[in-house]
Amino acid sequence: MKFTASQIAGILEGEVVGDPEIAVYKLAKIEEGEKGALTFLANPKYTPYIYTTKASVTIVNKDFVPEHTLETTLIKVENAYQSFSKLLAYYNEVKNNKVGIESPVFKSDSASFGENLYLGAFAYVGNNVKIGNNVKVYPNVYIGDNVTIGDDVTVFAGAKIYSETIIGKNCIIHSGVVLGADGFGFAPDENGEYQRVPQIGNVVLEDDIDIGAGTTIDRATLGSTILRKGVKLDNQIMIAHNVEIGEHTVIAAQTGVAGSTKIGKHCMIGGQVGIVGHITIGDRVRIQAQSGIGRNVKDDEVLQGSPAISYSDFNKSYVHFKNLPKVINRLEKIEKQIDGK
């Protein structure tokens, strides 16, 4: 699929400097650009590459003024990074614009579907499932009974959506995601043997949520495990039963959140963070990677370490920790001097 510089400028509301009819059909990093490629320049440290790139078209900020001759055609925009991101989204939409039902699939007679459905081969759609408009379900996806999926949702290959799960509009569920598996609920009996506690709740995803590959979100014991609007989860994250995550919170890979914990709005949680169950984390909290959270956290706290302490205290403590061998040597010298007396 080819686009001319003038077509791209029209999408981005930009200005062409160079050949408006030059065509591109692929995307590339500026240092690897070649003929037929579209690239962008946003970070000033990559500026030298614009004079050597072979890319046919380069998106730049409006205030960019070349100091040397260019081979590439420019498209000048207000913000090159945002414009390139917009173009990537547009390209992705065109590339993934599949419609129709492949064969073989299983879909229950009681399931209902909106317009422009894509249902990939070997997908399973259970009883009383409700799927909205412009939904794309890729091959080998399992959708259990009584699931509801809103408009403009994409479910990539191999995802498993257990019964009663509710997914809002404009969500992306990546490959290997499991929504609605049983929460980790077991109770010891009088013999010390663990008996399963039935998990009869569900998972609810509100609108505009992204779930990364291999992430698992357990159904609630009772009620719902809830992700509020705009939550973004990275790959390989574990969200336990009855957890609630507030609007526009983002969580990086390999983080685990134990049962019944409530996380606030606009939080930023780094990779490999462990969060215990039954605590409350406030709004706009930032947690550094590999931290362990074992207590309630107030709004706007910034934490690091395991167990986590305030970010500034952690950095101060780390200075002393690095110098610990020197401190021990000094103490040993002092002890020898005292013993010598």
TrEMBL record:
Coiled-coil ranges (or none): none
Entry's EC annotation: 2.3.1.191
Catalytic residues as annotated in Swiss-Prot or TrEMBL: H241
Single GO MF descriptor: UDP-3-O-[(3R)-3-hydroxyacyl]-glucosamine N-acyltransferase activity
Enzyme class: transferase
GO biological process, one term: lipid A biosynthetic process
Keywords: Acyltransferase, Lipid A biosynthesis, Lipid biosynthesis, Lipid metabolism, Repeat, Transferase
Pathway: Bacterial outer membrane biogenesis; LPS lipid A biosynthesis
Catalytic activity field: a UDP-3-O-[(3R)-3-hydroxyacyl]-alpha-D-glucosamine + a (3R)-hydroxyacyl-[ACP] = a UDP-2-N,3-O-bis[(3R)-3-hydroxyacyl]-alpha-D-glucosamine + holo-[ACP] + H(+)
Pfam families: Hexapep, LpxD
Subunit structure of this chain's protein: Homotrimer.
Similarity annotation: Belongs to the transferase hexapeptide repeat family. LpxD subfamily.
Biological function: Catalyzes the N-acylation of UDP-3-O-acylglucosamine using 3-hydroxyacyl-ACP as the acyl donor. Is involved in the biosynthesis of lipid A, a phosphorylated glycolipid that anchors the lipopolysaccharide to the outer membrane of the cell.
Protein name: UDP-3-O-acylglucosamine N-acyltransferase
Species name: Arenibacter nanhaiticus
Lineage: Bacteria, Pseudomonadati, Bacteroidota, Flavobacteriia, Flavobacteriales
Annotated gene: lpxD
